[in-house]
Design brief:
Radius of gyration: 23 Å
CATH topology of the largest domain: D-Maltodextrin-Binding Protein, domain 2
Distance between the termini: 35 Å
Helix content: 10-25%
CATH superfamily of the largest domain: Periplasmic binding protein-like II
Strand content: 15-25%
CATH architecture of the largest domain: 3-Layer(aba) Sandwich
């Protein structure tokens, strides 16, 4: 998925995910008292956010790893391991007793539910509830969820949800109340990662009210909805029927959580910095640190003690449409790769605290299979001489190209980055005209082959920490969608690469799969189908009374299920 400044719950409140050390990780708050998950309960946590809470239905949320707010309300078959660093990139059992049992070459996955799991009304959660929750996510009345299951489940591509087809999905079997079996059309070793998605949250059929369900979704997590005003506020209180003994990963420290949306990022950061009154108990899940606060960090100020630094696996890049001249010429793509000035791009994005230069498409995270390479060395500021040399050898001079970008900088694909690229290419003798496209329609234009420009700014973030969801949408030729919504902007379709993707998908050993994803990234990188620009770094502030705000390797920010204000 793309990491953007949020406009929906799925992309905002949900993108956070933290994990502190299990059993009482480090104290990252300003108080000298050590954090203890057994005694952290109490107080009210405030969440100050930019993005509005448009939807609160698990079927409509595009998030894996349980997200941040959803993870407080909805338990799924698996969840994030909620540990800092590399350990936090792994899935862990949640409603299920383990990560699932693969069979038939990873085309069948079987899960057994725990015994001590309940909805907020005290009703035991069953396999049928999980199946029904998944089936709801196929309903056209409830759009927005992750699309994987429509492709992965046998015979599910045309399913229209339980309201139109109450017979359900036959590829999901529930032979008893504790067992759920998934039949897939092809091997999928990453299924335990997908099972963290909110689509896998149980929904009691008797309580389903269709499109109105999100007004008060039935909780399976440590908190339940007290009140919800879409796009404005969400107030959560404890779910008395959540059993702490069944859920070691969620500490559920605050007694109450109050989310306020629609705030300006500068206001959020100023309130967190000052920490007056209830703001001392505040966090944010979508307002990264602004320039004013960044200038204070690293100086030994009090603010240095209240900053969480993580990395969400995301790459900003230049996307070539290789069906259009001159980008159908590999030498043009190579020359521009040599010319790029990544330092100026980093500066345009806000500096080295929030972005790092990338020469690989996979970000520098072991779980993804990251393998260093740089086939077109540009140095820190671009190699204009080498770029001119490559163009001259190809008989190309006085080249003029157009670069499409968003018309604002909110998603890191706007005028500032475009201007930095324009200047770098100018040094190599390439004239760049800029084409600003309304951010609201940018994905519609660039994602449809018929309207896709020749060169465009883009970004991609992994749905879970694996090379598959990073490379497949961008380079699998079977992912080219002519009707629109395509992310394979190179329109690259190599049967050998497609076959290697299938072979890696069949692996159930994450380490073995990671090595193969890294090798595939390297192979594709030689073709200069994209120019990787930067990888994301995340810097979030938190209030003076907040403890255990430790980022993990999955989402790059702290986890509301583990922070404390006591």
């Amino acid at each position: 998925m793309r990491r953007t400044l949020p406009i929906t719950l799925a992309a905002t409140l949900l993108t956070g995910a933290l994990a502190a050390c299990q059993g009482g990780g480090g104290d990252t708050g300003s108080s000298s008292a050590a954090f203890d998950p057994a005694t952290c309960q109490g107080g009210t946590l405030s969440v100050l956010n930019q993005g509005g809470i448009n939807h609160l239905d698990p079927a409509r949320l595009y998030t894996s790893g349980g997200g941040n707010i959803p993870s407080l309300l909805f338990r799924t078959l698996t969840t994030r391991n909620r540990l800092e660093g590399e350990a936090g990139t792994k899935p862990a059992p949640d409603l299920a007793t383990d990560l699932g049992t693969p069979s038939d070459g990873a085309k069948t996955w079987t899960y057994t539910l725990r015994d001590d799991i309940f909805f907020e009304d005290g009703t035991p959660i069953t396999a049928a509830d999980v199946k029904y929750g998944i089936e709801r996510s196929f309903a056209p009345e409830l759009p927005g969820g992750a699309p994987y299951l429509r492709d992965w489940l046998v015979g599910a591509a045309g399913y229209q949800g339980p309201y139109k087809q109450p017979e359900g999905i036959t590829a999901i079997e529930t032979p008893d109340a504790k067992t759920i079996i998934f039949k897939l059309s092809k091997p999928e070793g990453d299924f335990p990662f997908l099972a963290t998605a909110t689509q896998f949250a149980p929904v009691p059929k008797a309580r389903d009210t269709g499109v109105d369900y999100e007004k008060h979704p039935i909780s399976s997590g440590p908190y339940k909805v007290e009140s919800y005003d879409p796009k404005k506020t969400l107030n959560l209180v404890r779910n008395e029927n959540w059993k702490k003994g069944s859920d070691a990963l969620r500490y559920a420290c605050p007694d109450r959580i109050e989310v306020t949306s629609g705030l300006d990022a500068a206001v959020i950061n100023q309130r967190l910095t000052t920490g007056a009154g209830q703001d001392a108990n505040a966090v944010t899940t979508d307002a990264v640190v602004g320039p004013e606060q960044l200038a204070q960090l690293g100086t030994g100020s009090e603010l240095d003690k209240r900053v969480a630094r993580g990395e969400f696996p995301s790459t900003t890049y230049l996307a070539f449409n290789t069906t259009k001249a001159p980008f159908d010429n590999p030498k043009v793509r190579e020359a521009l790769s040599y010319a790029i000035n990544r330092t100026s791009v980093v500066n345009a994005l806000g500096g080295s605290a929030v972005a790092g230069p990338s020469t690989t498409f996979l970000p520098p995270q072991k779980a993804l299979g990251y393998k260093p390479y740089d086939f077109f060395p540009a140095g820190e500021s671009g190699d204009a001489a080498k770029a001119k040399e490559v163009l001259a050898a190809a008989g190309l001079s006085n080249l003029t190209i157009e670069l499409s970008h968003q018309n604002d900088d909110s998603e890191g694909q706007g005028p500032k980055v475009a201007a930095a690229i324009q200047d770098a290419f100018k040094q190599a003798g390439v004239t760049v005209t800029l084409n600003a496209i309304d951010s609201a329609t940018y994905r519609d234009v660039t994602g449809k082959p018929a309207t896709q420009p020749g060169l465009a700014l883009a970004s991609w973030g992994a749905d879970w920490p694996s090379g598959g969801p990073f490379l497949i949408p961008i380079f699998d030729g079977r992912q080219i969608i002519t009707a629109g919504g395509s992310f394979n902007l190179a329109q690259y379709n190599d049967p050998e690469v497609n076959a290697e993707i299938d072979a890696i998908n069949a692996l159930t050993d994450p380490a073995a799969a990671a090595a193969r994803w890294g090798a595939l990234d390297e192979k594709i990188g030689k073709l200069a189908l994209v120019i990787p620009l930067t990888h994301e770094k995340d810097v979030y502030l938190y209030g003076k009374n907040v403890k255990n705000a430790v980022p993990d390797g999955w989402r790059g920010t702290y986890d509301l299920a583990r922070v404390s204000v006591k």
